[in-house]
Amino acid sequence: MATFLYARVSTADQTLDHQRTQAEAAGFTFDHVIADHGVSGVSTRLAERPQGRRLYDMLRAGDVLVVRWVDRLGRNYQDVCDTIREFMRRGVVIKTIINSMTFDGATKDPMQQAVRDALIAFMAATAQAQAEATKAAQTAGIEHAKAQGDRYRGRKPSYTRDQLRAVQNLLGQEAGISVIAKTTGLSRQAIYRIKDDPMGAEAVLTSWGM
Questions:
Q1: Maximum CA pair distance of the chain?
Q2: Global pTM?
Q3: How far apart are CA 183 and CA 17, in angstroms?
Q4: How many independent structural domains does the chain possess?
Q5: pLDDT digits (tens, 9 = 90+) for 70-122
Q6: How far apart are CA 24 and CA 32, in angstroms?
């Protein structure tokens, strides 16, 4: 039996070191750490990612797979559901750092199975909904910026696009403002501005060509 940490690194809050530190703080130790960098969780299935394929090859019955949250496995509802269920069929136990969830295919009790499967579906749907909300905000921000034309752009934003994505991701996971500030390095005021006006936050970045 071995314990694996899988990380998908795509934004400022999702560095490999940060995800590993979070996992170790939650009490996990690892035999293997595997990470995909710069891979979209929306358009690229886990099995199609370079290190995701390696993970599929390495996992065996009795192993434990640790992820920050289910969105590290994917941002597509069907893909996340299929991935978790495939690993459970193999006898792999999946654990999340956020919310301390455990998905284990060993249970034979039909009620426990029903609750487990419903929870998988809910979390997978949440991951996709967050991804779609972020994409919609970005599109709206671009359209808003285009509508403004060459008008005054205002003060240059204090955040990058990666930091904006990180804030939106953490807000979607209901992280506290203090946690988001510590994770992204942004001020509380900047985080509140993004939270209160996500469309405007996108528009400002776009107007500055960031």
A1: 63
A2: 0.63
A3: 12
A4: 2
A5: 888 988 888 889 999 999 999 999 999 988 899 998 888 888 889 888 988 88
A6: 13
Segments of the chain with pLDDT less than 70: 10-14, 39-43, 138-155, 210
- Scanning the structure block, which residue is given the tokens 């690993």? 87
Same domain, 57 and 41: yes
Q: Which two tokens stand for residue 86?
A: 């495939």
Amino acid at 14: Q
As a whole number of angstroms, the distance between CA 206 and CA 64 comes to 42
- What is the distance between the alpha carbons of residues 68 and 99, in angstroms, rounded to a whole number? 9
**Amino acid at residue number 159:** Y
Domain extent at residue 152:
133-207
Alpha helices in the chain (DSSP H): 16-25, 50-58, 77-89, 110-148, 161-172, 177-184, 188-196, 198-207
Q: Which helix (H) or strand (E) holds 111?
A: helix 110-148
